[in-house]
Each structure stands twice: as structure tokens, then as C-alpha cells.
Amino acid sequence: MQKILSDEMLNRMPKVLLHDHLDGSVRASTVVELAKSQNYSALPTMNADELSDWFHRGANKGSLPEYLSGFVHTCAVMQTPEALERAAYEHVEDCQKDGVCYVEVRFAPSLHTANGMHWDEVVNSVLKGFDRGERDFGITARLIICALRHLDSHHSEDMAQLAVDFRDKGVVGFDLAGEEGGYPPKKHLSAFHFCQRANFNLTIHAGEGFGKESIWQAIQWCGAHRIGHATRLIDDMAVHENEVIKMGSLAQYVLDKRIPLEICLSSNIHTGAAASFETHPFKTFYNTKFRVTLNTDNRLMSNTNMTQEYQIARDFYGFTFSDFERISINSMKSAFICYRERCDLIYHVIKPAFAKLRDELAAQEVPR
Ligand SMILES: O=c1[nH]cnc2c1ncn2[C@@H]1O[C@H](CO)[C@@H](O)[C@H]1O
Ligand SMILES: [Zn+2]
After folding, report:
1. Ligand 1: residue whose CA is nearest its atom 11
2. Which listed site, 34, 124, 189, 366, has its alpha carbon 20 to 30 Å from 173?
3. Residue 284, domain CATH
């Protein structure tokens, strides 16, 4: 019989988080403290709980541009090396408390130069926070650098170069983020080609605020190895009674090449990429054997964490212990660290922890 998976057990499952924005996940209390110390007076409230609600209300309007509007404030208070290091350090701590064993955090360095920091200093400060966090909390944190899709191709080329420059210091990938409609990834081809020639990792936000064409461009023009969100990939499939009965060539390609999809359930509801958890295509993707991963996107704006995303998978899609183990392992397989490190984490961290939890579950009294 199916055992009940408690929230506490979901929290303790070793989770792998591949899509999590630094500037969308900073603690509300930290935003308030930084604002006070920096005399930043534009926050709507100086009360951390109210601020947290305010961010979430602003994000939960069913549109990506509205969702993104709150980032002005988090970025405004992260303009010094100390503030960035603190946010990065706390990020690792929060992930560890959430049962995450490996996290790839992303952010856009160009949003942190308002007070004159150079990109190198920006990136170094975040990596310093991760280093300290890794030592104190015993989990692994790596960085992905985002270019912003509404800026020009010189900007994305600079960010691609920056990411590759830091490849041996903790940066593992390059991404394109920001408003999707009207800003196709193809506009930043030179940055992606630069990364490809450097044998570097690429993920691209696509199929969230725009349709499947954006996913197609991200993969076939830009060479993305993973897709951020990919929600609208469902538009390339004919579904009847929850079964995929026909697939277009793009969906078939994504399935056959095992391209990982960085699914962000709560965030998708907030931005309007999906209307509800019930109608979200995640379960269809999972049942059809797409390489899906579960992610938070923005823990502050979407008022979530990994345990909560796992709760949603349990409550709305009937996920079992084995499903969660598969998701954690598949996510780790999809990470941007090297193969040996991925295997190490799978065989020495994830599998043993799931084995222990499985024993605990087996020891639970079975109702007669
Ligand atoms: O769901 C999203 N879709 C697209 N862009 C996003 C999303 N969440 C955050 N950002 C954008 O990425 C930047 C760097 O972290 C953020 O400042 C925000 O503008
Ligand atoms: Zn994102």
C-alpha cells in the first residue's frame, strides 16, 4: 500500500535545485535590513512580513512583466560586495534548511553595477558567499550567469565572456532571462555561439511568457542544453484524456535527446504560463518520460521553496517516494557540474539518503 509522505519527509529528501534566481530568492528580512543600512527609501514597507506579501502579491498577477517588476527593489539593495555576499551566503543556508543538496543559482551581474562595482567584483562577491555557505552548511552551490533578453547583443556577449572567464571558479552555465515576448533568443546568437565554441553549458528561459517557437529557437538556433520552464512545449503535443496521442517534431526531439526541462510549478501559475496546478502540463511531461526537474524559480516572489514544490507534486500529481527519488536523480544527471561530480553526488549523497528514508518509511506501522 502507498505510505503517506509527510511534509517533514519531503523536507528531508535530498533535492537538487537547478533553477533558482539569487535576486528573486533573497530573504524579505534581509532586503529590509539592507535597505535600512543603505538608506534606500523606496521599499513599499519596512516590515519584513508585509514586504514578503507585497512581493508575492505583485508577482501573482498572471503576467511575466508584472512578475518581474519587484526585482527592482531586491537588486537596488544588492549593489555592494557585502550585500551580494550576504545574499549568496543566506541563499545556501536556506537551501540547506530546505533539504537541497545541490543548487545552481542564477543572476544577472549587470543589474548590480549601479554603484560602480565591476562585473568581476559582482561575481566574486557572490562566489565568496557560496564558498562560505558551502563550508558552513555542507551543500554544493554553483552559479549561472544570466544575460537579459531585452538588452542588446553586445551585453549578452559580455555576459557570456564573463561566465566563461569564471568557469573554474564556480560558474557552471550561461542563461538568458527577462521578458520573453518580443525578445527571441535568436537575437543573442553570438553570445550562445561563443559559449558553444568554449564548450560551455547553456540553459535558456523559453516557453514561459511565449510559445513553443521560443523553445525551438533556444534549442536549434542557440544550442541550449536545458530549457528554463518549457511549459508551452505542451502546445507541440496532442493530448487526449491525459495521454499524449501525437507529438510534433520539436517535442519528439526534446524527448529523444533527453533535454532537461527546468519546471517551476508555482512560478508558472504566478506568471500565467499555466492557469492552475490541475491543468499544468508537468504530469503529462513526466508520464511521457520527458527529462523533467522541479524548481523554485524565485523563492521570495513566488513564496515557495523546494519542499513546497515537492508537496505540490505529491498533492496534485500523486507523486510517490519513487517518483521523488527519480526526480532528484534525473535533476542531478542534468546538472552542469562535470560527470564525475554528478556521479559522486548521486551515489554518495542522493541514493544513500533515499535508501535511509525508504527504510524509515518501511518501518512505519502499516494500517490493517
Ligand atoms: O521566471 C522568470 N522568467 C524570466 N526572467 C526571470 C524570471 N525570474 C527572474 N527573471 C529575471 O532574471 C533576472 C536575473 O536573476 C531577474 O532580475 C529577473 O529579471
Ligand atoms: Zn527563472
Report:
1. 178
2. 34
3. 3.20.20.140
